[in-house]
Amino acid sequence: MRRALLALLPLVTLAACDKPRAWGDVTSIIVAASDELWAEIQDSVYAAVEPRIFTVRNERTFNVTQQDPLRPDWENLQRFAQVLAIGSPGDVWVAEALAGAEGRDAAPSPELLQVEDVWSHGQRVTVLVLPEGGGAADVYPLLQSLHDLLDRQYRAYVEARMFMTGRDTALASALLAEAGFSVLVPDVYESEQRDEVYIFRNDNPDPSELIRQVAVTWQSPLVAEMGQDEVLAWRARVVSENYNHDQIPRLDLAVADTLLLDSRKVFQLQAIWENPADLGWPAAGPFILRTFTCPEHTRLYLLDAWLYAPGKQKYEYMLQLETILDSFRCS
Hints:
The chain is of the alpha/beta class.
């Protein structure tokens, strides 16, 4: 099997002052590939680029639309912000993309690279360069690298967006000095302390439309390792005493895992919460629950992050909550 070469070249920006602005959401990807090749590779590309992420249902990370560049609609679709071009250097759409990779060393095909502003300003084109006469067999070895690249860039995009208002480093420092732990939240988050429960909340633009909340509390001295039922009972007490409304966990679709963060093992449970039926209106959303052992302070921490985003795609907001949880430190 031909050895695939991953060439993650620095993005090269073409002279774009005379090009139209790119359109389309960052999660929308237009695939430029011949209909013949696409018929062979589409299932594998969908699996690599559109993996389903569970929030309250399976959501696509990206929305992929294929177009043969030899068809008339390509003139409009080539202006999208995210384009994935697949083909050999002899294919006109690949040749046009490679023309922007100035200083690119000749590399054996297949390879993976990115170029900016090929057909529109503010555009990123990812190119899977196949050898002349190449086909599906040359695409498959690059798909894992393609997934990793797009996923890494999307996560960086989400983090940049969530911190557009700035990082509340002053709060993080104050928490570490006064409470013995820190989390890094955007400046727009409100914080509140209720005894040994700290709540960080962003309900902009309107709490009826979007709520992101993280709570941190602890038990001390350290207790024996807790099972899932005990952790959920702990969360239930925190919810009952500190949240506006009770949240009943649905565990039929729960996913439990053990993570390694800051060189420590962390228990994580992701599931769905629902309001009690007698509350008067239905509400639900995903939550991420973690326990974090901190021997330095003889504490077992509980971190509870939950989301309310009716009618919205939730993956981006879940990544925001994960980013905050990952920033947790207790020393």
